[in-house]
Design brief:
Largest sheet: 2 strands, antiparallel
Radius of gyration: 23 Å
Helix content: 40-55%
Mean pLDDT: 80
Strand order of the largest sheet: 1-2
Order of helices and strands: HHEEHH
Strand content: under 5%
Distance between the termini: 89 Å
Bound molecules: zinc ion
Length: about 230
Amino acid sequence: MKKNLSTTLGVALAIVVAVAAIFVPQHRARARRDACLNNLRQLEGAAMSYCLENKLPFDKTLTPEAFSAYLLPGRDGAPAICPSGTAPYSSFNVLHGPRCPNSTEHNRIFVTKGCRGEKAAVWAAALSRGAARGLSWTDSIDPKEITIGFYCGKCTGTCPLGTNGYPPFVLASGPHCPLSAEHNAAQGHPWRNGEFFDKHGNANTNLSLSAVDTNSWSVWIERRTQSNH
Ligand SMILES: [Zn+2]
Ligand SMILES: [Zn+2]
């Protein structure tokens, strides 16, 4: 009996060790990935602020040193680096965003999230403009008609893998990334006008575009368009 119990405990312990061996490294890899994504987001935001304040175009290539005043330093005061390697983050432009020098997986996730975020922002702006212009869900809109700068998550309206905006799209479907199927596997989390979307990011076409109060954001976009002329 005693022997059986210790065997059972031994087996249980072996299972715990095996499970830990599988999941602990996964957990660590995820923590490193999240730290890197955090760094990348911070680099991108700092570079964007730097460009806006200095009136530089978003396709200007910058070294992280150039806008270090906008960055929070790492724990030891040195610039933050990706915990999956030793290479520092290198030069980039806002249009394409920064890249991780140590992990292709980190880049894949960062770029996918970036594209989905941009698509969601472009879609929200298109709905706002569609509503202001009396369009319906089945109408198409060309994102180029909408002034970039007021509505976008990153203010580029472009997939981080490309340089052109998203092609024209039907308001009910939202924009489509021509560069990666993965970027279209899910729509981005809708930005601002959440009432137009269900929890999966699909448009709620039961709502009339024109009936919904679009107040401030559509007014902003229209105003911005006018002031640019
Ligand atoms: Zn990384
Ligand atoms: Zn994309």
